[in-house]
Amino acid sequence: MENRIRFRHITCFLAIAQEHSLGRAAERLHLSQPAVSKTLSELEALAGAQLVERGRHGARLTQAGEHFLRYAADVGRALDSAGAALAGAVEPSAAILDIGALPTVASGLLPDALTRLREVRPHAGIRLRTATNAVLLAALKAGELDFVVGRMAEPSAMQGLSFELLYGERLIMAVRPRHPLLGKAGISLAAVLAYPLVVAPAGTVPRLHTDAWLDAHALRVPPSSMETLSVSVARLFVRRSNAVWITPQGAARDDFDDGLLARLDLPTASAEEPVGILRRSAGAPSELAQLLLDLLRDCARDARPERQSGRKRATRAS
């Protein structure tokens, strides 16, 4: 097989894995869709296994395809590096890091780590993508990202990936200062639900925890709630209204510290959400990626006492 597989097979397969569609992969490669389909069929014949399931809703990798992707992504990056080296043989381009982060995580440790990175590598380029966990993991597997700061997924979605825990955080309820519920003893969930809610979209881990917590009290998220992944929209909306934001604590950390938001004294989900680094199991990170990974670990260690004291301050303030 290694004597018959060609670079066009690899580039075609990677385009399909990244676009989740033969049609979009064809557009990306400037080929016709029949040509892409033919190249994929050749690769599957060489592999002796179906790598992609085609259907009305696009193209989805099979288990064999997921396994092959682990190695095809490395080949794709090597080709890109070789091409960049040839194109910039006279003047090497600055190192660029492609990373992914959940919106609620991107406003937590990541800014601190990126600030430290800028101090030691001022000319490094950073491309940050924020999206849902599922979208980020698909991009990571396809070789579009160096690593992701997010949450562990179901075992089927973790094939070819590793997870390293950075920290755990609970859901909290954030409101504007001088919110009518602040300072009241014995707040009930029913009282909270009388105000507009801001929650994560269905299918995300924070929303699953939110639904489970409310379900344990025979309640549910009201249909009138605002569902958003945008931390900036959520925090500004809550600061300008009487809405209650159910969110991982890290997303509102700076607003709590600056006194722009306050925390309601009402226990939410008992379990902490694990947040960590997701990487491809195969291959080693680049020098720049390894540097940022080490800085993230340092920031997580530095933040542990702060998180503990922050919980105590929030309790006393409430």
SSE diagram, text form:
Blueprint: H1 7-19, H2 22-29, H3 33-47, E1 52-55, E2 58-61, H4 63-87, E3 96-101, H5 103-106, H6 109-120, E4 125-130, H7 133-141, E5 147-150, E6 161-169, E7 171-175, H8 189-192, E8 197-199, H9 205-215, E9 226-227, H10 231-239, E10 244-248, H11 253-257, E11 262-263, E12 273-280, H12 287-317
Parallel strand pairs: 3-4, 3-5, 8-9, 8-10
Antiparallel strand pairs: 1-2, 5-12, 6-12, 7-10, 7-11
Helix pairs in contact: 1-2, 1-3, 1-4, 2-3, 6-12
Domain HTH lysR-type: 5-62
Keywords: DNA-binding, Transcription, Transcription regulation
Organism: Trinickia symbiotica
Describe this structure in words.
The chain is an alpha/beta fold and 318 residues long. The protein folds into three domains: 7-87, Winged helix-like DNA-binding domain superfamily/Winged helix DNA-binding domain (Arc Repressor Mutant, subunit A, Orthogonal Bundle); 96-168 and 274-309, Periplasmic binding protein-like II (D-Maltodextrin-Binding Protein, domain 2), CATH 3.40.190.10; 171-271, D-Maltodextrin-Binding Protein, domain 2, CATH 3.40.190.10. It is 46% helix and 18% strand. The strands form three sheets. A five-stranded mixed β-sheet has the order 4-3-5-12-6, with helices on both faces. A five-stranded mixed β-sheet has the order 9-8-10-7-11. A two-stranded antiparallel ribbon has the order 1-2. Mean pLDDT is 85; it is low at 305-318. GO terms for molecular function: DNA binding; DNA-binding transcription factor activity. Residues 5-62 form the HTH lysR-type domain.
